[in-house]
Design brief:
Strand content: 15-25%
Helix content: 25-40%
Number of strands: 14
Radius of gyration: 19 Å
CATH topology of the largest domain: Enolase-like, domain 1
Order of helices and strands: EHEHEEEHHHHHHEEEEEEEEEHHH
Distance between the termini: 54 Å
Structural class: alpha+beta
Strand order of the largest sheet: 4-5-10-6-7
Number of domains: 2
Shape: globular
Number of helices: 11
CATH architecture of the largest domain: 2-Layer Sandwich
C-alpha cells in the first residue's frame, strides 16, 4: 500500500492568511483543494511538498456568482456542482458537457475546477470548453492580484505561468452573445474514469439564426502538449454561411493542425482521424444550438 510522505498542514480561514502562508513557504508549499491529483502524485513519490495549504474553508472560493454580464466561479468549486446549476446547463452548456464527462461520480464530487486547470494535463476535460468560452482566471498572492486569459496560462504538460506563492481564486466567463452555441465531445475507451484519446470543443456565434458565422472557436485536446486552437479551421468558418459542406471542409482542416503522439491509448494517425470526426460532430451540435439561442 502506498503511503503519503510526511508533511505539515495549514488550514487558513481567509485569502489574506493563505497568501501570507504561501509567501513564507516559498517553494515548499502546495495548495490542497480536491486532492485528486496532488495526493496521488505524493503517494507515487513524484512530488514531496513540505506543507499542504488547504483552501477548503476560505469563504467565496466554492461559489458561482452571477455578475454584470458574466459569472465568477470559485476555484474550489467541486466539478459535480457545474452539472447541477441550471445557469451552467442553459447558458454555458459546453462547460456542463465537459464537467459531466470528467472522471466518475466519485471523482467529480471531489475534484475542483481550479485543480483540473492548475495540473495542466494535456487531456484535462475542463480547459478546452473554458478556453472556447473565453474564460479568464484570477491569481492572487501577498503582493496583489492579476487576471489573465486561461489560454495564456498553460506552458506545457504540467507547466503553467502560476508563481509558487500564487493561489488561483476564480474563473470568470462572460455571458455568451446571442445566437451562440457550443459542444464538447471526449473520445475514450470507456464512458467513465477515462483519459481522453482525443477531445474537441467547438463554439460558434451567428449574426442571426440563419445568418453568417461571426466568431468561431475550435479547441483540440490530447493531440498536443497543451490545448490548441485549430486556427485555420476557425478562420475558414468566420464570415461564412454554415453548411454541411463547409463543416466537412473545416473538420478536415482541423485534423491537419494537430501533432499527436503514439501511445498505449491510440496512435497519432488514429487521433488525427478522430479530430476530424469530433470536429464535425461538435460544430454540427454547436450550430444547432446557436440557431435556437437568444
Amino acid at each position: 500500500m502506498l503511503l503519503l510522505p510526511r508533511f505539515d498542514y495549514e488550514e487558513p480561514k481567509d485569502l489574506h492568511e493563505a497568501c501570507k502562508i504561501m509567501a513564507g513557504l516559498k517553494d515548499n508549499g502546495k495548495i490542497l483543494a480536491g486532492g485528486t491529483d496532488l495526493l496521488v502524485n505524493m503517494k507515487k513519490g513524484l512530488i514531496f511538498p513540505k506543507c499542504l495549504v488547504s483552501i477548503g474553508k476560505i469563504p467565496g472560493l466554492s461559489e458561482i456568482e452571477p455578475q454584470n454580464g458574466s459569472i465568477s466561479i470559485g476555484s474550489n468549486l467541486i466539478v459535480a456542482k457545474l452539472t447541477e446549476f441550471d445557469l451552467i446547463k442553459q447558458r454555458y452548456s459546453i462547460l456542463y458537457e465537459s464537467a459531466a464527462s470528467l472522471g466518475s461520480p466519485l471523482i467529480r464530487n471531489r475534484a475542483t475546477i481550479g485543480g483540473n486547470i492548475v495540473t495542466a494535463r494535456p487531456a484535462a476535460d475542463l480547459p478546452p470548453s473554458l478556453i472556447a468560452l473565453g474564460a479568464r482566471i484570477k491569481l492572487k498572492n501577498k503582493k496583489g492580484e492579476r487576471e489573465l486569459k486561461l489560454e495564456d496560462f498553460f506552458k506545457g504538460p504540467g507547466e503553467t505561468v502560476i508563481k509558487k506563492d500564487e493561489i488561483m481564486t476564480s474563473i470568470i466567463i462572460d455571458e455568451p452573445p446571442p445566437f451562440s452555441g457550443g459542444n464538447y465531445i471526449k473520445l475514450g475507451h470507456r464512458r467513465a474514469l477515462e483519459i481522453a484519446i482525443v477531445a474537441v470543443a467547438s463554439f460558434i456565434t451567428l449574426d442571426k439564426p440563419d445568418g453568417i458565422i461571426k466568431d468561431a472557436k475550435i479547441l483540440l485536446s490530447a493531440v498536443a502538449p497543451t490545448v490548441i486552437h485549430a486556427v485555420s479551421a476557425e478562420g475558414a468558418l468566420i464570415g461564412e454561411k454554415p453548411t454541411g459542406k463547409l463543416i466537412e471542409k473545416v473538420a478536415s482542416l482541423a485534423s491537419q493542425e494537430c501533432s499527436p503522439i503514439d501511445d498505449i491509448r491510440g496512435g497519432a494517425q488514429y487521433r488525427c482521424a478522430m479530430v476530424e470526426v469530433l470536429t464535425k460532430r461538435t460544430l454540427t451540435a454547436a450550430l444547432k444550438q446557436a440557431k435556437k439561442s437568444r
